[in-house]
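Today's session is about reading a structure prediction critically. Students often jump straight to the picture, but the first step is always the sequence itself: look for stretches that repeat, for charged clusters, for runs of hydrophobic residues. Only then move on to the predicted structure, which in these notes is written as discrete structure tokens rather than atom positions. Here is the chain we will use throughout the hour.
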Amino acid sequence: MPVKTYTQKGIFSVVILLPVLVFCIAMLFVAGVDEPFAVIIFSLVIMTFIICLLIFYKMTITIDDTLLTFTMGIGLIRKSYPLSDISACRPVKNSPLYGVGMHMTADGWLYNVSGKYAIELSFKSRKKKIRIGTDKPEEISRAVNSLISGSMQGAYVDRGNNGGFFLILAMVAATIVLPIVLIVLGSRETKVSFSQSEMKLTGVYGLNIAFSDIISADTMQSLPSIKSRTNGYAAGNTLKGHFRLQDQSKVMLFVKKGIPPYIRLKTSETTVWLNFDSPGKTREVFSRCKYNI
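Below is the predicted structure for this chain, in token form.
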């Protein structure tokens, strides 16, 4: 028999995913490329939605003499089932709670890109059923049932490509895990070490400050008024990285707000503000700086 192909457009998926994708792209431009954390997170989210669009924009079901195959989108998700192992194919109407996507339901695995209609495949070699979304469930069911025979024998074979599914999982996991990692790393206290010629700040946005570059060193009881981040980390009372003050001057901050004193180091390159969880440690570091200048 000639190969029969049935394609359903994933209108619902596109209507949901495309506006969110556009919004994320707009937010990336608003955040600006100078915010590395925002760039990383929004880039991961954007990539996830692009992959989802490539998967869910259509569903294609193909039937030939031996196989029923469905392909989602560009083919990142593709599965084939031998007709010899299909015991029945019937049109079904999914519960609105099932939604769209790829997930387990009370009726077995569902693969759907739009709408509430699907075909349900039952197999000879296993109890679990498969539902595949389509806008032509009756026509496809008739075509499959006309080909399968009760006398046909065959083992269940689920041949396909799950690359898109695992790629989405990886992107979602990275989107969830990476912010947590960044928050943990960013919240850690900046470490300081000294050599004969410089002091070294290690951690997020760490830098080396040569003693010969320090123009002045003071301790302050309050922070200056901060206007914005230009390339920095801010969470809770922790500020690290590049910031702009209300007077438009640029500074580097390695501070915990609300724990004075603060060390202010003016160098030939920039002004650095620094403190630690312990005021005693802040004073100790300041003393070493003054000694080496």
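Discussion point for the tutorial: Residues 163-187 form the longest helix (25 residues).
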